[in-house]
Amino acid sequence: MSTIATDAARMIDILPVDEQQFAYEFIKKLVRAWDPNFTKVTTEEAMRIKNAEESGFIPDDEIDWDSVGV
Fold first, then answer.
1. What global pTM score does this model have?
2. What tens-digit pLDDT sequence spans the chain (70 residues)?
3. Residues 12/24, Cβ–Cβ less than 8 Å
């Protein structure tokens, strides 16, 4: 988690419960406005995807699932 996200979480935790809920809903609206279909990835997620793609993994459709563990 980034420093900003950690700091934001700490600040939200200081608030009364009702205000925490308001802050949560506000952040949720910001995220949905930025990525309404939840298809964008963060820099960290993009790096993890790239590393996975370059790791030599095998796509799901290329695995004979009936033969796994036999």
1. 0.56
2. 889 999 999 999 999 999 999 999 999 999 999 998 888 988 889 999 999 888 887 888 888 888 888 7
3. yes
Q: How far apart are CA 16 and CA 65, in angstroms?
A: 51
Please give the radius of gyration of the chain, using alpha carbons only, rounded to the nearest integer.
Answer: 19
Taking a C-beta distance cutoff of 8 angstroms, is the pair 40, 34 a contact? Answer: yes
Write out the DSSP string of the chain: --HHHHHHHHHHHHS-HHHHHHHHHHHHHHHHHH-TTS----HHHHHHHHHHHTTT---GGGS-GGGTT-
